[in-house]
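Bench notes, afternoon.
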Amino acid sequence: MSIVKPYLTTRSLVPENQESPISFLRTSAVDSSLFYKRNHFSYPHLSYSSYWIPISGLVETPLLLSMQDILQLPSKTIEVVLECAGNKRSFLRPKVFGEQWEKGAISQGFWKGVPLRTLLQLAGVKQGAKEVVIEGYDAGKRTDIDGVFSYTRSLPIEKALHPDSILAYEYNQKPIPYKHGYPLRLIVPQWYAMASVKWVRQIKVISTAFTGPFQTKDYVYYPHKENDEDAFPVTFMHVNSTIQAPADREILKTGKHTVKGIAWTGIGQVEKVEISLDGGKTWLPAELSPAGDHGYSWRFWTFDWYASEKGEYAILSKATDSNGHTQPNQPYWNRKGYGYHAVDRIVVKVE
């Protein structure tokens, strides 16, 4: 008998954007073959042996480091969830343009690398530094601006110096796969994954605000459809949860069922997940798995449900974190569809 294996769902081929099979993510470390892919351009062509990374700008000593140099520096391993800022975009109403992600633009695992702070300290950050710009090797044309652009983002100097912002070279104890940033990618815990630049090409310390298009045009919340008023940048992940089982529109038999899923947040950690079996009228506590060491990983949750009566049921999940943030009933609509974190909802039928 053949074994059916889970697979990624393709949202676009060029560039390659694929969702993880969210119902099959049952461990803390997602296998690299099931890790979601988010790209703005085609994959770059790189050689590990000739890979060098310059650190320049507002520093005392500009550096040019090889991978061998980086591998000799003190490293750390952290468990981090990466969520695309557009995850669940397809559920927004009115609908918005952009990759129509459902629930699978999220994955996590163990990343090993060198703290970005270590490299910046080696170079010596000068007084007046405001941001650290990280440029990736992936580049191409945009539809809204003429010219060729590399995928480049910046971090505030405070976030760049955070001990857990790392330049990673391993994922789950193996070299980072080529399609996920090999040989070196930035990992920024707590922030949406647009900050975790892949295929790092260079690092530059600047004294002003970076204004590249992936900083000031994309990954910005635009609350209004017709204008850019009240816009503000996408940064920290919102508290969120996803129901993994049962599946939406699944037909069940009467009896005991386990509702299960994941929950995560940006700052702090998830402290509570509640389940509703009556469309949000009443809420009951789910059982949470232990929290991770750093609070950067998702928590699994389960809820045992005895379905004694036939009919349709709306099942909802709602997470609350240690800062008191709770998933809202309605999503925050914004023109580019970022940061969806409303209460998750599925409908099942019991026969």
